[in-house]
Amino acid sequence: MNISTRQLLAFVHSAQLGSFTKAAERLHITPAGLSFCIRELEAQLDSRLFDRTTRSVTLTEAGARLLPTAQRVVQDLQVAVSEVHEVETRVRQALRLGATPLVCNKLIPRAFAAFRRNYPHVTLRVLELQRDAIQDLVASGELDIGFGIFLKGATGIERTRMFSSRLYLVSAADGKQRGNPLRRIGQTRWDQLGGTPLIGLQPSNAVQQLIARHLPDGANDNAGNTSVNHIETQIALAEIGVGAAIIPAFALTACRHYKVVVQELVDPAVDVDFFRIVRKGAVRTGIADDFTRMMVSAVNDLR
């Protein structure tokens, strides 16, 4: 037995309206189509459900016995469909983001204020994660968007470049310096870094690998070099004189509360691209696109 929802709807509306024609109009199908549904249902039940006349249809005893159950099934299904739609609407009204800790701390809050004004009823869920974890969760659909420096593509991921960020050198300031170090940004050349102890990210980090390609010979082999996991840790260690850190421009806002010297690295000037990633084939939403634009605007405000 394979009774369909379409057949039950045809039966219930025909019984309630006493007319195949009116039931067909209610269901937006042809009278012939509705009659076919009723005949199929009767064939599966091996019972005649309606007494038919040229003017109306009335339930047989078998039809009268079936009607309460059919009504309950149709009503339960309609309630379930409504609840599913309600859940789906709530899910769509939540934006799930993943980003590295510094991006979560320094950039996302700047975009959030504008986002909240435009989307007061949307829930924003933010996870602070390492790059690999962000990519994995975006690919699995557990995150809607990921933000970060994803220099290499990944299976199931679609990358969109948001902006480029220049590399800067951060080192300890002398005791006389006061105030915001970003007001006094100088320049230094890559070839001047030879012999300088460096505080880098882990060697497997794509940004660190980009930096390594521009360091002068021997700089990667300095005995005083240190590796950490987070950019703000690099800055804190630079402040106390452990070494110098090379960081992208969007992270410079984290330097405001440290006693450090900031210098743009030149000859050559090196930019690193910042990306938004989404799951390949995922449905694009205006909410996600708007938040991305607000992130770009927040970065532009820092410049």
UniProtKB/TrEMBL annotation:
GO CC annotations on file: cytosol
Residues covered by the HTH lysR-type domain: 1-60
Stored Gene3D superfamilies: 3.40.190.290, Winged helix-like DNA-binding domain superfamily/Winged helix DNA-binding domain (1.10.10.10)
Superkingdom, natural source: Bacteria
Presence of the UniProt keyword Transcription in the record: yes
Entry keywords, A to Z: DNA-binding, Transcription, Transcription regulation
InterPro entries per the UniProt record, alphabetical: HTH-type_LysR_regulators, LysR_HTH_N, LysR_subst-bd, WH-like_DNA-bd_sf, WH_DNA-bd_sf
Molecular function (Gene Ontology), one example: DNA-binding transcription factor activity
Family label: Belongs to the LysR transcriptional regulatory family.
Protein's name in the database: DNA-binding transcriptional LysR family regulator
Originating species: Pigmentiphaga kullae
